[in-house]
Amino acid sequence: MVILFGFTLNGFEVLAWENMSILEVAGFYGIEIPTLCFMEGLSPYGGCRLCLVEVGPVGKSRLVTSCTYPAREGIEVRTHSQKVLQQRRMLLELYVAACPSSKWLQDLASKHHVTEVRFKPKGEECILCGRCVRMCREQMMGEAIGYVDRGTQRRITTPFDKKSEDCRLCGGCMYVCPVCQLRCQGPKEESTLCSSCLNLYPPCAEKFEEVMCYMDPCAACELEKG
Question: 113-132, pLDDT tens digit by residue?
C-alpha cells in the first residue's frame, strides 16, 4: 500500500511517499539541492554535507543532510535559507582548498557564488566522498577498494595497499570521481579559485532569509536592480 503524507517545503505544502528522502522530494518538485557524495544508483552516504537543509521551525531548526534524512509528516524544510547557503559556501571553500585542481569543485563553487577561499590550499587528490568505494561495491560487485585508518589519516586504497585481485580495471571509480577531471586552466593554475563561470548570487536570500524562486542561473533580480 502506498502511503502519502504532507509537509512544508520552502513554505509550500507538498506530498511525499513513504521512504522518500528530503533530497528526493525536493528533486521531484524541481528544487535543486547541490550534492557531492550522493549519486543516483548508489546508497546515500551523507559524508560531504553539501546537501544540508534546514529542518524545523525558525529559531528551533537544525541542519541535516537531505540525502539521508527521511521526509516526515508535518516537518518544516527550507532548502535555500540564508543559514543553509552560508554553510554550503563554507563547505565549498574547504573542498576547493583541499583539491583546487578539480573542475567539478570549481564549477560548484562558481555556481554557488564562492568568491574567495580563506583556507590554505592543500592540493590533495581525494576528498573522501566515497563515490568510488560504493560504485565498486554496489554496481561493479568488486569491493576492490575501501577506507583505511581514521580521522586525518583516513584514505581510500586497496587491501594492504597491494594490487587487488577483485579489480577488473573497469574504470568505474574514475568515472564517478569528482576530482579526477582537471579544471580548465590545467595542472598549473595560478590561483586557488577559478570563478570563470561565476553565477549570480540570489539577492532575495539577504532580504527574505531564503531564496524566493529557483531560477538557474539567478539573474532576473540582479538585472532589475541595474
Answer: 999 999 999 989 999 999 99
Please state the three-class secondary structure of the chain as a single string: CCCEEEEEECCEEEEEECCCEHHHHHHHCCCCCCCCCCCCCCCCCCCCCCCEEEECCCCCCEEEECCCCECCCCCEEECCEHHHHHHHHHHHHHHHHHCCCEHHHHHHHHHCCCCCCCCCCCCCCCCCCCHHHHHHHHHCCCCCCEEECCHHHCEEECHHHCCCCCCCCCCHHHHHCCCCCECCCHHHCCCCCCCCCCCCCCCHHHHHCECCCCCCCCCHHHHHHC
Instruction: Say which CATH class 4-120+193-225 falls into.
Output: alpha beta
How does pLDDT run across 64-89, given as a tens digit for each residue?
Answer: 999 999 999 999 999 999 999 999 99
The reply to whether CATH 3.30.390.50 applies to domain 131-176 is no
Global confidence as pTM: 0.89
Question: Boundaries of CATH 3.30.70.20 in the chain?
Answer: 131-176
